[in-house]
Amino acid sequence: MSAFARALAEHAPRIEARLQAEIAALPGSNVRDAMAYAARGGKKLRGFLVLESARLHGIGPEMALQAAAAIEAIHSYSLAHDDLPAMDDDDLRRGQPTVHVKWNEATAILAGDALQTLAFGLLARPDAAPTAEARLALIASLADASGGAGMVLGQALDIEAESADSPLTLQEITALQAGKTGALIAWSACAGARMAGADPAPLAAYAAALGLAFQIADDVLDVEGDAGLAGKRLQKDADAGKATFVSLLGLDGAKARARALVADAQDALACYGSGAHLLCDAAEFVITREN
Ligand code: GRG
C-alpha cells in the first residue's frame, strides 16, 4: 500500500466519524437518518485534501477535521441532489440505493439542504480555524465554490447541455467541470492555507490541474470502468450522447491529457518541498482510481 493510500485509509474514518457525530447530534427524524446515509462511505478525498493542506501549514487534524467534515457534508448534499429524478436520476450511489430511492424525493432534497447548512455551521464554530478572519475566509470561499459561481453553476451548465442543439466544445466542457467538480476540490486544497492566513495561490494552481484530471479520469472510468467497483451506473454519458473529455479527445488523448495535468499539479507543489509528498501522490491517485 502506498503512503498516500495509507494516509487516505487513516483519514477517511476520522472524517466520517466527525461528520456522523454532528449529524447524530440533530433531533431524530427521517431527514437526520437520510443525512447520515448520504454522508456514509466514499473516498473522502476532499476531506483528505483539507487535512493535508492544513498539515502543510502547521495545523493539526484536531482543528482541520471540522473543515474536512464540512466539505464532505457539501459533497454528500451535491451527490444526493444530483441523483434525484429531476437531475441525473440515478438509483445507485457508492454501491447502495440512492437517498430518494431508499426514502423519497422530499427527504432526499431536505437531507441535502440540511447537509449544506450543517457545513457552514461547522465552519462558523470557534474551533474551525485559529482566527475569526480565517473562519470567515473559509465560509465566504465555500459559498463561492459551492454556489451560483461554482458547483451549482457547473451543474446548471451540465443540465443545459443535455438539451443543447450541438455538443459542448472542449473549452466549454472544461469551464463546466471547473465549476461542477473543480470548485469543491479547489476549496479543499486551499483550506489549509486559508486557516493559516497564508497565500493559497500554489494550492489553487495544484487543485485546478487536479480537479480537471479527476474529471477526465471520471469520463475514462465511465467508458472503461467496472460498474461493480465504481458503485454506480456507467456509460451514462455516452448513452445520452453527451460530449465528454473522451468523446472530444479520444480515449488515449483523454488519458494523455490527464497524465499531463497530474505533472502540472505536482509541479505547482514544488514550493512546499517534500512536505507536500502526499498531495503529490494524491494527484497520481486521481487518474489511477477504480471508483
Ligand atoms: C446538485 C448542485 C448540485 C451539484 C452536483 C458533484 C455533482 C454536482 C455531481 C456529481 C456527478 C458526478 C458523478 C460528477 C463526477 C465527479 C464526481 C463529483 C464524482 C464523485 O466524487 P467522488 O469520486 O465520490 O469523490 P465519493 O463517493 O468517493 O465521495
Topology:
Elements lengths: L2 H22 L5 H10 L5 H12 L4 H22 L9 E2 L2 E2 L1 H4 L2 H20 L7 H15 L4 H12 L7 H27 L4 H24 L2 H4 L5 H4 L5 H5 L1 H18 L8 H10 L5
Antiparallel strand pairs: 1-2
Helix pairs in contact: 1-2, 1-3, 1-4, 1-15, 2-6, 3-4, 3-9, 4-6, 4-9, 7-9, 8-9, 9-10, 10-14, 14-15
The chain binds geranylgeranyl diphosphate.
The site of geranylgeranyl diphosphate has 16 residues, from helix 4, helix 8 and helix 9.
Please explain how this structure is put together.
- The two termini are 17 Å apart.
- It contains 15 helices and two strands.
- The chain has a single domain (3-286), classed as Farnesyl Diphosphate Synthase (Orthogonal Bundle).
- Strands 1-2 form a two-stranded antiparallel ribbon.
- The radius of gyration is 18 Å and the shape is globular.
- Helix content is 72%, strand content 1%.
- By secondary structure, it is mainly α.
- A hairpin with a 2-residue loop joins β1 (92-93) and β2.
- It has helices spanning 3-24, 30-39, 45-56, 61-82, 99-102, 105-124, 132-146, 151-162, 170-196, 201-224, 227-230, 236-239, 245-249, 251-268, 277-286; strands at residues 92-93, 96-97.
- Geranylgeranyl diphosphate binds at residues 42-43, 45, 75, 78-79, 81-82, 87, 94, 151-152, 155, 180-181, 218.
Quickly list its features.
mainly alpha; single chain; two-stranded antiparallel sheet; binds geranylgeranyl diphosphate; 291 residues
Quick structural overview:
The protein has 291 residues and is mainly α. It contains 15 helices and 2 strands. The protein has helices at 3-24, 30-39, 45-56, 61-82, 99-102, 105-124, 132-146, 151-162, 170-196, 201-224, 227-230, 236-239, 245-249, 251-268, 277-286, and strands at 92-93, 96-97.
